[in-house]
Amino acid sequence: MMASFLRQTYGQRIHNHNNPAAKLLLETMERKKTNLAVSVDVTKSKDFLAIIDAVGPFVCLIKTHVDIIEDFDQLLIKQLQDFSVKHDFVIFEDRKFADIGNTVALQYSSGVHKIASWSHITNAHPVPGPSIISGLSSIGLPLGRGLLLLTEMSTKGTLAVGSYTEEAVRMARAHRDFVIGFIAQRSMQGIGIQADTVDGDDFLVLTPGVGLDAKGDSMGQQYRTPRQVILESGCDVIIVGRGIYGKDPSFVDGIRVQAKRYMEAGWEAYQERVSS
Ligand code: BMP
Fold first, then answer.
1. Ligand 1 atom 1: residue of nearest CA
2. Number of Cβ within a 10 Å radius of residue 27
3. Residues 151 and 125: beta-carbon distance below 8 Å
4. Ligand 1 centroid to residue 50 C-alpha, Å
5. Catalytic residue among 23, 32, 94, 236
6. Which residues have any ligand 1 atom within 6 Å of their CB?
7. CA dihedral sign of residues 199, 151, 18, 230
8. Residue ID of nearest Cα to ligand 1 atom 19
9. Other C-beta atoms within 10 Å of 108: how many?
10. What global pTM score does this model have?
């Protein structure tokens, strides 16, 4: 049975969550009136920071892949955190952990990037089974972090479908303290439970593969519009990368215009959803 989370406002949904990172994201969305997340996939610190400063006012969340930054250092993390305070956004390192519990705990806490020390949210592939959640939560839970499981992907030919998706949602239901939601292409409500059961789990769905001008790229990416994602598919956050900064990360005026455009499209779709 379909529960009513999709018609609740982000503000109302804060009370459905105990995890601090989930609460922070919903509070930020409600306060700034935006469900836009920008994925900053560039290789130079200078471009990374310029994009974040330009899109900061329009986003609830900044998604990073810090392992692609060629001149990475801890100062960059300090600058990212300062922007997170200045512009009021949540940080999500899109690390896609996928190993045994012991290894992911080390990857999350240690190494060059020390992700757990600064990223409010991170994510994992459910492929190893529940032990990946135990490994990551041993590090992240005491720090108030949250985890997203990848239950679906935006790419052509993805294997994350059917019973894989269902089992992954079941894994999440068994770890509600740390798993705050999913990277997926639609609402996961009612998935992995019997059809006549009321679904009391309010998971957040963050959705990449969003573009207003292109249908995809030459490497399997597939785009849908904010309206398809938020209104028609019941997702909560649109994640946009190249649709906002295109091929020229230094053109900040153009980036601002695009960020505002996506923010407005995402919010309009959400308003239509909660008022329907
Ligand atoms: P873009 O909007 O430029 O296509 O970027 C999408 C971003 O979302 C990338 O950082 C990619 O790693 C991520 N992503 C995705 O595109 N599809 C998924 O299913 C999961 C992702 O994390």
1. 241
2. 16
3. no
4. 20
5. 94
6. 39, 41, 65, 94, 153-155, 183, 208-209, 221, 239-243
7. negative
8. 153
9. 28
10. 0.98
Q: How far is the CA of 242 from the centre of ligand 1 (A)?
A: 9
- Lowest average pLDDT, out of 26-35, 171-180, 249-258, goes to 249-258
Which atom of ligand 1 sits closest to the CA of residue 183?
Answer: 20
Phi and psi at residue 160, in whole multiples of 5°?
A: -85, 80
Share of the chain above pLDDT 90, in %: 93
Give the span between the Cα atoms of 150 and 125, in whole angstroms.
5
Is 271 annotated in some ligand binding site? no
94 catalytic, yes or no? yes
Given pLDDT bands bounded at 50, 70 and 90, which one contains residue 195? confident
**Structure-token pair, residue 107:** 């990857």
Inter-residue contact 118 to 81 (CB < 8 Å)? yes
Q: How far apart are CA 251 and CA 238, in angstroms?
A: 22
247: confidence class by pLDDT, cuts 50, 70, 90:
confident
Q: Are 97 and 123 in contact (CB under 8 A)?
A: yes
Q: What is the mean pLDDT of residues 235-256?
A: 92
What is the Cα Rg of the chain in Å?
17
Integer Cα distance of 156 and 219 in angstroms: 9
Angle between helices 252-274 and 45-55 (to 10 degrees): 50
By the 10 Å C-beta count (0-12 exposed, 13-18 middle, 19+ buried), 162 is classed as exposed
> Exposed e or buried b for every residue in 4-26, given b needs 16+ CB within 10 A?
ebbeeebeebbebbebebbbbbb
Q: What is the ipTM of this complex?
A: 0.99
Q: Whose CA is nearest to atom 13 of ligand 1?
A: 208
Q: pLDDT (tens digit, 9 = 90+) per residue, 64-85?
A: 999 999 999 999 999 999 999 9
